[in-house]
Amino acid sequence: MPLGDGRLSHDIDPSDRPPQDACGVFGVWVPQDQAARAEVSKLTYYGLYALQHRGQESAGIAVSDGSRIVVFKDMGLVAQVFDESVLNTLRGHIAVGHCRYSTTGSPTWENAQPTFRSTDHGGLALTHNGNLINTPDLAARLDGGALTATSDTEVLTALLATREGGPMAAAREILPVTRGAFSLVFMDETTLYAARDPEGIRPLVLGSLEENGGWVVASETAGLDIVGARFVREIEPGELIAIDAAGVRSERFAEARPKGCLFEYVYLARPDTTIAGRSVQATRVEVGRRLAAEHPVEADMVIPTPESGTPAAIGYAEASGIPYGQGLVKNSYVGRTFIQPSQTIRQLGIRLKLNPLREAIEGKRLVVVDDSIVRGNTQRQVVSLLRDAGAAEVHVRISSPPVAWPCFYGIDFATRAELIAGNLDVEGIRDSIGADSLGFISLDELIAASQIQKDRLCRACFDGVYPIAVEEAARGKHLLETIRR
Questions:
Q1: Burial 36-66 (b: 16+ CB within 10 A, else e)
Q2: For this structure, is 461 an active site residue?
Q3: DSSP element (H, E) containing 230
Q4: Which residues are CB-neighbours of 282 under 8 A, at least 6 positions away?
Q5: Is residue 82's pLDDT more than 50?
Q6: 243 phi and psi angles, rounded to 5 deg
Q7: How far apart are CA 126 and CA 113, in angstroms?
Q8: Percent of the residues in the chain that have a pLDDT greater than 90, as a whole number
Q9: Are strands 214-218 and 205-209 parallel, antiparallel or unpaired?
Q10: Burial class (CB in 10 A: 0-12, 13-18, 19+), 204
Q11: 3-state secondary structure of 197
């Protein structure tokens, strides 16, 4: 199965792991008399399929029939974890689902989601997109209670399950003291809940299933589209909602302090998703136009690094007047692998994923557009590949500013020491990757393309300004494993 970003997975090319997406969350509620017809487990399966680009380590679905919750989860992609026979055993009228990339906690079955806890009132199944930054403080509130996993999500689930008064009352107590990025979708036997951190760092949207009176919550609008749900609105930062037979109820647990992740527009979200009323595809094409204005060059053809650079390459070609073309062909079936690649295979590097169209690029001056540079190894290999295929010049254009700072809110970037922009200036990066020229979109132009005010965006990976201060002790995906030793 291909990864959503069209790049090599780090299983095949561990020397240049791209930024790993956070997670995808999905939830659905339908009236009980519609359960048999709606097949909420299959709706959730398709919702997760649409969100697969946000996490490829594990997948899971929890379903309630009104009296009990059943959870099924495993390591692997959505289509590998679930088949028709499994989905047919997950019957009910409420479901939550999750596809995971680990940010706190190792990639193990125990850390797969949904997480589940028994409560005084029944059960609680929870899914989480984001990353908490005060996990040790939250874990201390458990008064020595046992944890069955090492994720921040497990801590949050345990806290919500051990408070009196049910999930809504527990959420009112716990969420105001929870810090970091969290878009939550959770459930008990009768009610679907959703909540979003006060900064609204990760997206979360609400949709309606008008055919049967149901409701859907998803990380992205693309998750609504695939199940035929109508977009209603975004879950607001600092908002907690509950959905049951009485309808949708909403309340605030904190004042909204919007700081949506700018990198969602650059890389994380699907191009057919809408965030804060702005099409991700339209934003990326506009970034390409602005990139052409900021970093023009005389060239014969604009090509993308498939598929991550395609929208910006289209915009660059439109604005520059340089013809857009295909210079690299992607092998869609190279991606996550369950065999250990040999050294010989590793040495093939980018050639496993991309192959040049020699007749299209030979003798040409090329503009190669991609979304970001992390360590630089991929771009170095692409430049070398194009030169070997006969390109006369290779000019690299990047539709984001240099990624110079790690993220602590749900994207597993490299450490600052590993980030090429954390150690080299633009000219140093250009020399390192072997390009004839290199240009990054400026932060101001990227923000302008998003059409969102600068003070309502998290830009920390680009400028090092973190909207929520992160203590050194709270950094690192294995911190709970260290605490438990």
A1: eebbbbbbbbbbbbbbbbbbbbbbbbbbbbe
A2: no
A3: strand 230-234
A4: none
A5: yes
A6: -125, 120
A7: 7
A8: 73
A9: antiparallel
A10: buried
A11: coil
Strand duo 301-304 + 365-370: pairing: parallel
Q: According to the model, what pLDDT value does residue 336 have?
A: 43
* Distance, CA of 342 to chain centre: 29
CB 107 within 8 A of CB 58: yes
Q: How far apart are CA 116 and CA 44, in angstroms?
A: 17
Nearest 10 degrees: Cα torsion 260, 264, 268, 271? 130
Res. 1: pLDDT tops 80: no
Q: Is the backbone peptide bond immediately before 176 cis, with ω within 30 degrees of 0?
A: no
Burial of 117 (0-12, 13-18, 19+ CB in 10 A): middle
Average pLDDT estimate for 118-145: 88
Cβ count near 142 (within 10 Å): 13
**Which of 151, 125, 148, 128 lies closest to 138 in space, CA to CA?**
151
Q: Which helix (H) or strand (E) segment is 99 a member of?
A: strand 94-100
Find the catalytic residue in 23, 261, 407, 461: 23
Nearest-angstrom CA–CA distance, 39 and 43? 6
The total of other beta-carbon atoms located within 10 Å of residue 343's CB is 6
What is the average pLDDT value for the chain, to the nearest integer?
88
- Asked which of 34-38, 161-165, 243-247 is least confident by mean pLDDT, the reply is 161-165
Check residue 6 and report its DSSP letter.
-
5 or 263, which is more confident: 263
- The single-letter code of the amino acid at 64 is S
Compute how many other C-beta atoms are within 10 angstroms of the C-beta atom of residue 441. 26
What is the Cα–Cα distance from 130 to 19, expressed in whole angstroms?
14
* Burial grade of 267 (CB within 10 A; 0-12, 13-18, 19 or more): buried
β-sheet bridge partners, residue 27: 96, 217
pLDDT tens string 233-289: 999 999 999 999 999 999 999 999 999 999 999 999 999 999 999 999 999 999 999
Least confident of 134-138, 222-226, 281-285, 293-297: 134-138
HSE-CB for 478 with a 13 A CA cutoff: 6
